[in-house]
Amino acid sequence: MVTESFDLPIHWAVALINGDDTGFTDSDDLRAMQVFESWMLKKYGSCWCIDVTDSQGFQRYHDAHQFGVLACEVATFTFDISLRGMK
After folding, report:
1. Is 87 inside any structural domain?
2. Which domain holds residue 72?
3. Which of 12, 14, 39, 46 is most buried, most CB within 10 Å of its CB?
């Protein structure tokens, strides 16, 4: 198994693990997550989240910063990038 880990907003966990984005109240935040997913698919060919660790705390700079996400509580998300085309 090949994995890649990223520090991402903790409130993305349900959507990335379960595929349920109904909890998003901010459309800009949902869009940022969707752009991240598209980036993952383009870069790795997969966006299959397999694990989320405990909170890494409130961080200004994290791996979702490049997608327009401001400072927030983050956790480390691990993706199986060996499962091409699963999501």
Report:
1. no
2. 3-80
3. 12
* Structure tokens given for 85: 């085309």
For tokens 């998300």, the residue is 77
Judge whether 86 lies within some domain: no
For the chain (87 residues), the mean pLDDT of every run of 10, in chain order, is: 94 94 88 96 93 92 94 96 63
**Domain for residue 30, yes or no?**
yes
Q: Give the Cβ contact number of residue 71 at 10 Å.
A: 12
Query: Do 24 and 15 touch, CB atoms closer than 8 A?
Result: yes
- In the beta sheet, which residues pair with residue 3? 80
Q: What is the pTM of this model?
A: 0.88
Sheet holding 49-59, edge to edge: 3-9, 72-80, 49-59
